[in-house]
Amino acid sequence: MFWYRNLIKLSTPIKSKTPITKNLLQASLSHFSTANQPPASAQAQPSGLGPTKPHDKPRVVVLGSGWAGCRLMKGLDPKLYDIVCVSPRNHMVFTPLLASTCVGTLEFRSVAEPIARIQPSISSAPGSYFFLANSTAVDTEHHEVHCETVTDGTDTLDPWKFKISYDKLVIASGAQASTFGIHGVKEHAIFLREVHHAQEIRRKLLLNLMLSDVPGLPEEEKRRLLHCVVVGGGPTGVEFSGELSDFIRRDVHERYTHVKDYIHVTLIEANEILSSFDDRLRRYAIKHLTKSGVRLVRGIVKDVKPENLVLTDGSEVPYGLLVWSTGVGPSPFVNSLGLPKSPGGRIGVDEWLRVPTVQDVFSIGDCSGFLESTGKPVLPALAQVQYRVGPKLCIN
Ligand SMILES: Cc1cc2nc3c(=O)[nH]c(=O)nc-3n(C[C@H](O)[C@H](O)[C@H](O)COP(=O)(O)OP(=O)(O)OC[C@H]3O[C@@H](n4cnc5c(N)ncnc54)[C@H](O)[C@@H]3O)c2cc1C
Hints:
The protein is of the alpha/beta class. Helices cover about 30% and strands about 25% of the residues.
């Protein structure tokens, strides 16, 4: 089965999308199944990992490879459990350093750790696997997770559906960037949550620096290309704005002297920047950002167009690079689960991180929160918090 595991982990492109590929995949997934094999007539049914047998190790299925899920997998003993991780990415992202990769202070590989390094059994133990897929539904009655392979940007396979039976399920699928339904955000802005976002930001920044230097380009267009706009004055937006202004002061002023006077950073925030922080810290951040040339604008974005955004007061802000960082909320996957919810729409858990209405289901990380009945506050969406809940669940 090794060839198959390597295939999904590395997403090695296969040139032709022939039925042979599909048949092989289907055959391989059926082979995983320890349940009764379906008759040939039922071939259209998704195959997968069937229920474990009484003498097998219990199977822990972890949905997500972020701070919470990876910390949990790291702490699980593969001698006691088979570990199966389902996630659309095969690495963990060290998010606090992501902003530094956008401007080249750090390289991308410095902030991404392969899951197989965090929990080696996942790529070596016979019953443990990593599947590059999104979980799409959870059938708590039959102890099954429904999944669909990730095929973004490849023509390797059509999305492939399969099921995994679990003995214990841990939902750690994180949160999703909020857009508040504002038109044009998804199409024109770049989020800052994944390594590919940071790569896109760096590429666009450098491209705009180059393009703005071509002869004959109108002044106005030059200014637009080099106007970097960050929406959202929370910790990520503030940190990224700071990184950008450092990059401008250190690198652009030294290496792109032709255009150095055209490049600017604007940070747009509806309320106060760093509103959840102590007043002293907030004042320090404002002073520091202003001193380093970041323009702070109080405003609410109502529309995003390809080259400018519109604020509710009607003013238009042209941009060459737009980074969107207005906080996070529950993902469509979490919204779709028929599980109890905590305030804010996260999956509701008790003090032991169990989803109390169903058996053998736990939830950790940004996708979960304590139920109101526990009397505990919903924990903040922070890596520091999620890194601690992983070991707590291992102990439970
Ligand atoms: C740029 C940035 C900087 C940050 N800086 C800090 C900081 O300095 N300090 C701090 O404490 N916190 C920081 N945070 C917040 C911190 O990163 C999050 O709180 C933390 O990542 C949450 O961990 P998690 O495991 O719950 O979710 P995530 O780390 O978001 O992981 C979720 C995982 O689930 C996967 N997934 C999503 N949907 C599905 C699905 N349907 N099926 C299966 N898998 C799925 C995702 O691909 C991902 O692997 C920062 C966040 C960002 C974006």
